[in-house]
Design goal:
- With 469 residues, the chain is mostly beta strands.
- The chain folds into three domains: 261 residues, Methylamine Dehydrogenase, Chain H; 87 residues, Sandwich (Immunoglobulin-like); 89 residues, Immunoglobulin-like, CATH 2.60.40.
- 0% of the residues lie in helices and 39% in strands.
- The protein contains no helices and 37 strands.
- Strands 20, 22, 25, 28, 29 and 30 form a six-stranded mixed sheet that branches. The protein has a four-stranded antiparallel sheet with strand order 1-2-3-4, with no helix packed on it. Strands 5-6-7-8 form a four-stranded antiparallel sheet, with no helix packed on it.
- The model has no long low-confidence stretch (mean pLDDT 94).
- Bound molecules: copper (II) ion.
- Copper (II) ion binds next to loops.
């Protein structure tokens, strides 16, 4: 970067570049007022960093600010400062003021150094739980640590913060983790500034989005964690659907907790889990991609969540999207990848298949702008034109991922799954082997299929009559 940054936030943009904002220059902590680039964000692209020269050099944000790539391509500073804003990276980093949080004391006037630094949810957490829809949770503004939660929908014509349902417990130094079913798990935290383990909030809480898609969600208190998770603790979703909660302490006057534990959300106790038996390595924007499952007809939702990184209560990269199901076969489900890189920055995502809210374990798929080109063909042969002949089918093609699923006379043949060839026995002269193969290209796309039918009789190669003994 152009400068040393202690506690910056980095945000991946739709074109794969990275915005870096805030952070202070250690050991000076408060940057030199003569610095022409003080508080100025910078951008990484094409392997190098550059200043955003249109950005206000005096706009001082809190450390590790809550930054989200918005649906319109700007980056939204959702908090913890009361007066939020957008930075337009495309246009040199120009800032525009956003709405104010409900929580917190009056925003300092224009020109006050604390105008954008002034907190509403300081040491709280924030999460984008659907494209453009953000929760800002807990922390402290006016009147100590809060259990209040505010939500905003950046897709609205005039986005405004409004209070959502409150948590059962006030929490600062808290983590939020978006789950495969679209709910949000909140773990750890402390209801005051005393830094004592004995005050730690041990029960987890889960936010369920409103069934109607608008209005407040609801909170459920869940089982307690084993150890306090306060300052410097982390929480991240694992590909198996559990949440890893770890750490805490190591400075700031808090007790060290160099341990980790995993939380199993309620959906893991609600019945058998669906399975994704194959998924492609990559897909591209707005394109279909398929995955294999032993029970494609039972999968009623597909979601994906970006691989993420978290520190100081803010996960800079978690993104949750629903992938609409567009087709099914006897062995596969096809979904459509998100069309907008602003909703879904390029990179790696955990794909979950759900049945009645119960998620599968994830497969990891990356998304980019490279359309998938793949082809398939099927060739068949027969050992002899007589009873007891063996018919063979062989796949060839390009960019095939090896997820071959074979059907014989319309029936899936699991014994040949993953193999590039299949065989069938023709017991008499009336026997036919109708081979069909379905393959999911390694680069995504809809399933490719090919079929060929082999007959034992009545006339085989060269007009030979099929004969049985
Ligand atoms: Cu720290």
């Amino acid at each position: 970067m152009k400068r040393n940054r202690w506690y910056p936030t980095t945000t991946v943009l739709g074109n794969g570049s990275v915005l870096s904002v805030s952070g202070e220059t250690e050991p000076i902590i408060v940057m030199n007022a003569q610095d022409q680039n003080r508080y100025r964000p910078e951008l990484w692209q094409n392997g190098g960093w550059s200043w955003l020269m249109n950005a206000d050099r005096e706009r001082r944000l809190p450390l590790y600010p809550m930054m989200f790539l918005a649906p319109d391509g700007r980056v939204f500073n959702a908090g913890p400062n009361k007066l939020t804003g957008y930075i337009d990276v495309v246009n040199g980093g120009t800032w525009t003021d956003g709405p104010e949080h409900q929580l917190g004391a009056a925003v300092p006037p224009v020109g006050d150094a604390n105008r954008y630094f002034h907190g509403a949810h300081h040491e709280g957490t924030a999460v984008m739980y659907e494209p453009g829809k953000i929760l800002v949770i807990g922390g402290s503004g006016a009147g100590g640590v809060t259990n209040t939660v505010e939500r905003i929908n950046l897709n609205d014509a005039t986005p405004q913060f409004q209070y959502d349902a409150s948590m059962a417990y006030p929490r600062a130094h808290v983590n939020s983790t978006v789950l495969p079913d679209g709910s949000v798990l909140v773990t750890g935290g402390i209801p005051n500034g005393d830094k004592r383990d004995i005050d730690a909030i041990l029960p987890a809480e889960m936010w369920t989005p409103p069934a109607s898609g608008s209005g407040p969600g609801s909170w459920t208190t869940l089982n307690p964690m084993g150890e306090p998770r306060l300052y410097h603790s982390t929480a991240v979703l694992l590909p198996d659907g559990r949440v890893l909660s770890a750490g805490g302490g190591h400075g700031g006057g808090y007790t060290d907790h160099p341990t980790a534990e995993v939380f199993s959300p309620p959906y893991l106790f609600k019945g058998p889990r669906p399975e994704i038996s194959y998924a492609p390595a990559t897909t591209s924007y707005g394109q279909p991609f398929a995955f294999n499952s032993p029970t494609p007809g039972q999968i009623d939702a597909v979601t994906w969540i970006r691989l993420s990184s978290v520190t100081h209560s803010f996960n800079m990269n978690q993104r949750f999207l629903r992938l609409p199901i567009t087709a099914r076969t006897g062995t596969s489900v096809t979904v459509t990848a998100p069309a907008s890189p602003n909703d879904c920055p390029p990179g790696h995502y955990m794909v979950f298949a759900l049945r009645n809210g119960v998620p599968s374990e994830a497969r990891i798929v990356s998304i980019s702008n490279n359309p998938c080109a793949a082809s398939i063909s099927l060739t068949t042969s027969i050992s002899q034109y007589s009873c007891g002949a063996t018919a063979t089918a062989d796949v060839s093609g390009s960019n095939l991922g090896g997820s071959y699923r074979w059907y014989l006379n319309g029936v899936h043949q699991p014994a040949f799954d993953g193999q590039p060839s299949a065989v069938a026995q023709l017991t008499n002269c009336a026997s036919q082997a109708a081979f069909a193969v379905e393959v999911i290209p390694a680069c995504g796309g809809a399933p490719l299929t090919a079929s060929q039918t082999v007959s034992a009789g009545p006339f085989g190669q060269g007009g030979t009559l099929c004969a049985c003994e």
